[in-house]
User: What shape does this take?
Amino acid sequence: MALARVVTFDGVSKDRMQEMQKEMEGGPPPEGFPQSEVIVLHDADAEKSLAVVIFDNEEDYKKGDEILGAMPAGDTPGQRTSVSKYDVAVRMKS
Assistant: This one.
């Protein structure tokens, strides 16, 4: 079963989100990072962001969580306020 690492951030300006988008789209993932799907939501008015990283299995989740948790604060969109783990119950594209 797929697992999601869901992280909330405060203090994420529109400019910072644009920087993060360029960095994420223009560069490789961190070394050793397992294959995943990333969805980042942003509320520019509230300066809040929600990052959802979906991993295929528990082993990939653990490896990805370790790598992401060790990232320097300057590499994140804003101030990390929570990190949660969820089972991916439904996943659809239409």
User: Anything to note?
Assistant: DSSP finds two helices and four strands in the chain. The beta strands are 3-10, 36-43, 48-55, 79-87. Residues 21 and 27 are 10 Å apart (CA to CA).
